[in-house]
Specification:
Distance between the termini: 55 Å
Largest sheet: 3 strands, antiparallel
Order of helices and strands: HEHHEEHHHHHHHH
Structural class: mainly alpha
Number of strands: 3
Helix content: over 70%
Number of helices: 11
Length: about 220
């Protein structure tokens, strides 16, 4: 079995690869060649292979025997199905966070929100996305339910690429910002009854704007 340092390094590599997939540095359907990736990330191939196995278990990568892997492509139906479940999870998390989240936890989420706004002003999509994810994961953490955290983590990781599209253009980005303003305001008021439906709608919002089946042809 891999040693503890190797496990830690593999987890760190997996986190980097998740971000690369979300930001389309690694595109959906792209072949992942171990030798090239190892050189790009400046890591050895052993922890890289373990990282790819982590991503495969998350559903982000499809492994190919002795040939590396592919960035997994989800169909529109699969994305919608996963978003349906993720929306329910985040709705429940928001309601629970309003009930049992500590003042410090909710204050931290508000502080991260302000950092996220600053990233948006800089048009720094990657930092914005990472801070955005910290807010969503932080709401789940503030619900203090380990089973919820585990299920949300797995499903959310499968949808990184699609959630990254929340800043794909100025109009979509502005809607996401406005929705986050409302989310943070409801958290401050601990208004779980309103926050739950808001989070459920927010999870679907970006996909409804970028999904060709709902947006129709451009022009």
């Amino acid at each position: 079995m891999p040693s503890e340092p190797t496990n830690l390094l593999s987890a760190q590599i997996a986190a980097r690869l998740r971000t690369m997939i979300a930001s389309e540095d690694l595109r959906v359907g792209e072949r992942l060649r171990e030798r090239e990736l190892a050189a790009q990330l400046q890591v050895s191939r052993t922890p890289l292979r373990e990282a790819l196995k982590i991503l495969a278990s998350d559903g982000l990568v499809t492994l190919l025997p002795n040939r590396g892997g592919l960035v997994t492509a989800l169909t529109a139906a699969e994305i919608e199905e996963k978003l349906d479940v993720l929306g329910v999870l985040e709705s429940f998390a928001g309601q629970r966070a309003c009930k049992v989240g500590t003042d410090a936890e909710l204050a931290e989420l508000s502080a991260i929100h302000h950092e996220m706004l600053a990233a948006r002003e800089r048009r720094d999509r990657r930092s914005y996305f990472e801070l955005n994810q910290r807010i969503h994961v932080g709401i789940v953490a503030a619900a203090h339910n380990q089973s919820l955290t585990q299920v949300h983590s797995l499903l959310n990781s499968q949808l990184y690429h699609y959630r990254y599209q929340g800043s794909i253009d100025e109009a979509t980005w502005q809607v996401a910002i406005e929705e986050h303003e409302t989310i943070i305001a409801l958290l401050r008021r601990r208004d779980g009854a309103a926050l739950g439906p808001m989070l459920q709608a927010h999870v679907h919002s970006t996909w409804e704007r970028i999904n060709p089946a709902t947006t129709g042809p451009a022009g």
